[in-house]
Write a structure and sequence with these properties.
Low-confidence stretches: 17-30
Strand content: 15-25%
Structural class: alpha/beta
Distance between the termini: 64 Å
CATH architecture of the largest domain: 3-Layer(aba) Sandwich
Shape: elongated
Number of strands: 15
Radius of gyration: 26 Å
Largest sheet: 9 strands, mixed
CATH topology of the largest domain: Rossmann fold
């Protein structure tokens, strides 16, 4: 059975379970607008799922399928609404047709949000509350789901094609949409507000370094420096808090990897969009219903070392894979890129120590720190400000060791002087004037950075 046939079957089952009396006189004397809307929608949906030609739809592309559905449902809606003596505006009519098309061929009420390019994130806190982040600002929408079951159908439609599951025994899942958007879903008993769905969207056209400069994420000199560091095969960590733009920056940094190099990407839910030709993408796998078959990020990192990589790009390190990543960097695998959650470059190193210990190796702290300082060359730290903007606030070199302490030095930083009346962070990007210790290494690899970039 195709996914489309399965979806139509689910909709038919929903219609059979719903109490939709034929006689409009059985409705309350003063039904709410929402009740009238849902009843009309149910009636049109019931007719639509009974008459849609599934085989005809399976033969056409996604766009043509939407056009076919829109035409079919429009033809059904007008007489049904007329018989029910419901007078909707033309805008309401088109909205209802769009919602029904989304139920059958999309992701229900949130389908228009997924198509809106001004929205970065969709946050569904149970069926009645849907927030979005639009241009850096979080706002509540007027969109809602019918009930928990309606929202669960949408979640299952997202995760099922990926071979993943979500149920009481496994109430959390990471997934992705076909366009690469990152999805996290959490359901009861873990969630006390009903099913929760969070979708992090990514631009259909990958951002470039020029875009980040235009957004005010970094300066031109910082961009020149980062480009040289990637081309010069330095090992780079991108750090920052949640929603600070780490993955976007990692994507942009990876665009400077030469096209002829073999790149292995490793992620929990594949979301990186590298543009090079020679790429092998790998994704972790959760355990099956019997608790077996799990493939962790750490397993993939170890396996990637046998795949003759020129570069290893890990979407995020957050566990024992940090040890394997450091060992790879220390054994000739230069030019690795990854991200990590942290509040500062120093904090990121402390978290790396903790993650190495999570690998189960009882290593002395000094040994771990020596691994870190010899493996990591550069840390790019990024913050999200109150106005919704993202900025690279520090580009920091990992210099060496002094006693038991890893020494760092800032090469570039964002010097914030205050906050404007519109809530925007006021400040300037500037070089500290310190020249990186690894400049000779870059020169030996044929990469030259003009000294004017540090002034």
């Amino acid at each position: 059975m195709s996914l489309l046939q399965k979806r139509l079957q689910e909709l038919r089952q929903q219609q059979n379970l719903q109490d939709s009396p034929e006689d409009s006189s059985l409705l309350p004397a003063m039904p709410s607008r929402k009740a009238v809307w849902n009843r009309a929608k149910d009636r049109i949906m019931e007719e639509a799922v009974a008459t849609i030609d599934v085989e005809a739809m399976e033969q056409v592309s996604e766009n043509d399928r939407n056009k076919y559905l829109t035409k079919q449902i429009s033809g059904l809606a007008e007489p049904i609404l007329s018989n029910m003596e419901i007078n909707f505006t033309r805008a309401d009519y088109h909205r209802m047709v769009g919602e029904i098309v989304s139920e059958i061929n999309g992701y229900g009420p949130i389908t228009p949000l997924l198509a809106d390019e001004t929205i970065n994130e969709i946050m569904v806190n149970g069926p009645a509350q849907v927030y979005v982040e639009r241009l850096g600002k979080v706002e509540l929408t007027d969109i809602s789901f019918r009930d928990d079951g309606h929202l669960m159908h949408v979640i299952e439609r997202i995760v099922a094609p990926l071979g993943k599951r979500i149920d009481e025994s496994s109430p959390m899942v990471d997934a992705r949409l076909p366009d690469g958007s990152r999805v996290n879903a959490t359901i009861p008993p873990v969630s006390l507000t009903g099913p929760v769905l969070t979708i992090r969207k990514f631009s259909k056209t990958p951002f470039t370094m020029s875009d980040l400069i235009r957004f005010g994420t970094l300066s031109t000199n910082m961009a020149v420096f980062i480009k040289a560091c990637v081309e010069g095969r330095l090992n780079i960590l991108v750090g920052g808090g949640t929603a600070s733009g780490k993955t976007t920056t990692l994507n942009v940094c990876s665009s400077f990897i030469p096209n002829h190099e073999r790149i292995i990407t490793i992620e929990d839910a594949a979301e990186l969009h590298l543009q090079q030709e020679h790429i092998v993408r790998m994704e972790s796998r959760p355990p099956n219903i019997e608790g077996k078959g799990r493939i962790a990020i750490r397993d993939l990192v170890i396996n990637s070392l046998r795949m003759r990589p020129d570069r290893i790009v890990v979407g995020e390190v957050r566990g024992g894979e940090a040890l394997d990543m450091l060992q790879a960097m220390n054994t000739g695998h230069d030019g690795c890129l990854t991200t990590g959650h942290a509040n500062s470059p120093r904090d990121l190193l402390s978290r790396l120590e903790t993650m190495v210990l999570m690998a189960g190796m009882e290593l002395p702290v000094r040994a771990i720190r020596e691994q870190i300082h010899s493996a990591i060359n550069l840390i790019i730290h990024q913050n999200r400000f109150r106005d919704g903007s993202r900025k690279i606030t520090r580009i920091t070199e990992v210099v060496g060791m002094e006693g038991d302490v890893i020494t760092l030095q800032d090469i570039f930083l964002f010097d914030q002087q205050g906050v404007g009346g519109d809530g925007k962070a006021i400040g300037t990007f500037k070089a500290t004037g310190v020249l990186p210790k690894f400049l000779p290494v870059l020169e030996s690899r044929g990469v030259h950075i003009p000294l004017s970039a540090f002034s």
